Structure formats: C-alpha cells, structure tokens
Amino acid sequence: xxxxxxxxxxxxxxxxxxxxxxxxxxxxxxxxxxxxxxxxxxxxxxxxxxxxxxxxxxxxxxxxxxxxxxxxxxxxxxxxxxxxxxxxxxxxxxxxxxxxxxxxxxxxxxxxxxxxxxxxxxxxxxxxxxxxxxxxxxxxxxxxxxxxxxxxxxxxxxxxxxxxxxxxxxxxxxxxxxxxxxxxxxxxxxxxxxxxxxxxxxxxxxxxxxxxxxxxxxxxxxxxxxxxxxxxxxxxxxxxxxxxxxxxxxxxxxxxxxxxxxxxxxxxxxxxxxxxxxxxxxxxxxxxxxxxxxx
Length: 295
Prior knowledge:
By secondary structure, the chain is α/β, with parallel strands linked by helices. It is built from 13 helices and nine strands.
C-alpha cells in the first residue's frame, strides 16, 4: 500500500481530505505534516493512528525528514503570500531529495499569465511552483482550484451586514465565476489520492458546476434572506476608497479588489467540468451553499 503524506492537514481543506479517504485504509499508510509536535490537533491525529510528521515549509531539513519513505505527497499551497515562493521551493526540493514519487499540488485557475495581469501577485507563485514540480522529474497532478465558495462571505459580508446594507458591493462587474465548495475539492482530492495513477502528469482545472455573476448571487441571497438585496459594481478606485472610509483593513481591501477584478476580467469563469468528472456528480448547488451559510 502506498504511503501518502498530506500537508495542510490542520487546515480546512487538508483536514477534509483526510475525512474523505477510504475508511478501510490502514491509518499507518496516511501521514500528516504538522508544525507543532504537541497540540490538540496533532494529538487528535495520533489518536486516529495517523503517522504524524513534524515539519515547516520554511525549514528544508525538517521537510526532507518528514518526507522520508513517502510515495505520494498532497501539497497544499502556502497561505503566507509574502513567503510562499521560497516555501514552495523548499517543499519541491525536499520531495526530490526524499524520493517522493508523485506530487498533487493545489494551484489556482487563471485565464492569463504575466506581470501585467491583475492576478500576477497571486498567480505567479503558483505558476513557478508548477514549473518546479514538472522540472523535478517527479510525477505530478496539478489541481487548479477555482475560488472557494467559502471566500464569498469575506467579500460580501456576514448575514447581519447584508441585512443592514442590503447590498453586495464588489468591483466584479458582470464577470462570471465558477465557485467551488471546499468540501467538493476535498472529496475530489481524496478520490485521486486513493488511485493517483490515472491522473499522472495531468493538470486539472477544478471549477464549480455553476458559473454565476454577483448579480445572480445577490438575487439568490435576496430569496434566502427574504430581502431585496441589490448588487452594486463600483470602479476599483471608488471601491477602495469606500472600503477605506469604512475602516476595512488594507490587506482585506487589496485581496477583495484583486479577486473581484479578476472575476470581472473573466479569470475565474471556468470552462471545464473536470471536477465533476472526478466526483462523478455535479458540485453542491450554490443556492444550497448560501442557504447553509446565510439562512
């Protein structure tokens, strides 16, 4: 039986992948990477009989030790945008030295690449990491994720905020986005990890089954909340100024502006149904997702 290691196991995505792996797997065949030798989450992994490896993306020596005897590596991209590139290089180099045979990497969808594109500060690290993995000689499966459906409350506001403003206010224009619920992305990853061979040396684009505008999302929210929710699409400068005037942190403004503009420019419209193919079904309906999130 192959030995599989999951990074990001203490996060929402990696933790869900573990839960979707077949229950008849020998727990000892599943390893998880944790930065903390002691802690509630790490102790929980031990209790489930999982092989806990200690390592940090910023520490190459730790990573090489953690990847020893690992055949398949589920590599969740770092959330540390500032240091992501160097961390990812550490992971790929450690995997090479440890003899990992297959890497599944969680990347990002995009329509365009290059320094002049709005998503360049985010996408460039993913592109470079994909290149490093392909150049490493290790078999790979690149999983290009569309935006998580779970990020939309961060962009649009909480239930109470929406009920107060009755407005979805984003510079997303009438661009479409194929939002993908995180649980469906996790389930698909578990399917591939169970039998990686058919996905060897492939790049898959994981889009949600619905391609919606935020005008349509506002209509869904209006039905769910029993209120008239309007969609307002300001220009980028107006959006940033309005958010600053409301005391929103600069990092949050930047992130929402970049992703919303990417949506407006068609970067997340999604043209493939490869996520459906792996799952064998459509992804969770967005109406159901928003009902569970906002009702």
